[in-house]
Design brief:
4% strand, 286 residues, mainly alpha, 4 strands, two-stranded antiparallel sheet
């Protein structure tokens, strides 16, 4: 698919660049390749969700959303859409394309990564929501910083990075402690360590790209594209493979028509333990 698109890629002719520093044809080709990987991953996650046992599809759903969102975002960016020109003052002059489609992708897909990781750890829903909120603060702060033309952009970068550090603490400390209690510590530590390490690399990418204007738009896309491929398609497939060994009852991730069950006491389902009517109870105690 990428080969065919590379031969007939006229995206920059149909949607001409709107800034001095902009996407190149080679960069667009790379983005089409990433789009293809995301779409293929989405189809894999979707297909596996149909084959998974009922009540054990939560991770399939989360990574389906993340990969579908990434597919749309990368389609837009490969087409030279989803960006706006911003004047640059640091290390260069003129205008540079800033890609808000990138941040929309992160806003949705990174929240899915938070939920997937913390569900594996067994923490409360309150902790999950707190992590999602921190991630949204992180992404929005960086978007604001990318749109600022002066050195004040680094203030927004600092706010977002601080949110990441707080998030990393909760994932690595509270999440790991909870995972240890329910027996998922090994897989949780492995997947979360990979995620936090890759997320740390995003701070370098942002500093070189939108922050410091040290690298070209296309070079930035190569950097970000590799990181995005690891965080969603690669990590998602890791969850699917490792998930075959997980006890969803112990994780508290079994779902029925009544919603999510608590951590399992072997074989207990709410539809099988419906309280007896009051009249029957009175008759038994009469």
């Amino acid at each position: 698919m990428a080969f065919l698109l590379a031969r007939s890629n006229d995206a920059l002719k149909v949607n001409p660049p709107n800034a001095d520093k902009s996407l190149t044809v080679h960069g667009s080709n790379w983005l089409w390749a990433v789009t293809a990987v995301y779409l293929l991953s989405f189809l894999v996650f979707l297909g596996h969700s149909l084959a998974a046992r009922h009540g054990e599809r939560i991770f399939h759903y989360l990574f389906s959303i993340a990969s579908f969102t990434g597919s749309i975002a990368y389609f837009a960016m490969a087409s030279d859409l989803g960006n706006t020109p911003v004047a640059t003052q640091l290390n260069s002059s003129g205008t540079r394309q800033i890609w808000y489609a990138r941040y929309i992708n992160w806003f949705i897909s990174w929240a899915m990564l938070d939920i997937a990781s913390l569900l594996l750890s067994g923490v409360s829903w309150a902790t999950v929501l707190y992590a999602v909120g921190l991630t949204w603060i992180w992404v929005v702060s960086w978007l604001c910083g990318a749109l600022v033309t002066t050195s004040y952009k680094w203030g927004f970068f600092a706010f977002g990075t601080f949110a990441y550090l707080v998030l990393a603490f909760h994932l690595s400390y509270w999440g790991r402690a909870s995972a240890h209690r329910i027996g998922s510590s090994k897989h949780y530590t492995f997947t979360t360590a990979l995620l936090l390490f890759v997320w740390m690399l995003y701070t370098i990418a942002w500093g070189l790209d939108e922050g410091g204007n040290k690298i070209s738009v296309t070079s930035g896309f190569i950097f970000y594209g590799i990181l995005d491929l690891i965080t969603v398609p690669v990590l998602g497939h890791m969850f699917l493979v490792l998930g075959r060994k997980w006890d969803y009852g112990a994780l508290g991730l079994q779902f029925t028509q009544y919603g999510r069950l608590g951590r399992r006491e072997e074989g207990v389902f709410p539809e099988k333990t419906t309280p007896a009517p009051a009249g029957d109870e009175a008759a038994r105690t009469a």
